[in-house]
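FORM 7B - TANDEM STRUCTURE REPORT

SECTION 1: FIRST PROTEIN
SEQUENCE AND TOKENS:
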Amino acid sequence: MSEKIKYELEFVVQSSPQLLYQYISTPSGLSEWFSDNVNSRGELFTFIWDDSEEEAKLLSKKSGERIKFRWVEDENDGNDYFFEMRIQVDEITKDVSLMVTDYSEDDEMDENKMLWDNMIGNLKQVLGSA
């Protein structure tokens, strides 16, 4: 398996940082836009889509600011890959952005960026910011 490449995306979101944080850090918030359902037991989050589920471990979070996960499959394979969602507020304009850091295989990069694009589109609709 080839090394995955780290990438970062920025999405401007019309939302308060506090509200946005609820949607990126809680199972109920994540299940409204990230996957069909989300369950959590402590640091272990289970993301459920139609007929599949993936488990991710909560690596860190800072209230109102960011949350970082690692897929259990990556951890079992000894990989340090993670995905992080970080809220950034422009000091001058007060624009709120959601910064997404993730890893992808080179040949799947465009597809993965499009997937994030679609998911953040869903998030914006839920927030009423689309």
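SECTION 2: SECOND PROTEIN
SEQUENCE AND TOKENS:
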Amino acid sequence: MAIAVDIDVMLAKRKMSVGELAERVGITPANLAVLKNGRAKAVRFSTLAALCEVLECQPGDLLRWEADEVAVRTMP
């Protein structure tokens, strides 16, 4: 199970830079990069809410669940 982060998609749709988003949300560009690149272990709801407010989107526009690839089982 993995959570994919689509901040890049919303940045492109809003024609906004990472630096501008970080400034408007109130986080460092380095912390935004960690989140944007899917390396974050967690995200605060307040940060997620601020991202949604600035990008004018819903949490589901930024985060999505991807199933892990599972080996095909054979019946005995």
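SECTION 3: OBSERVATIONS ON SECOND PROTEIN
The CA atoms of residues 6 and 60 lie 9 Å apart.
The helical segments are 7-14, 18-25, 29-36, 45-55, 59-62.

SECTION 4: SIGNATURE
Preparer initials: ____
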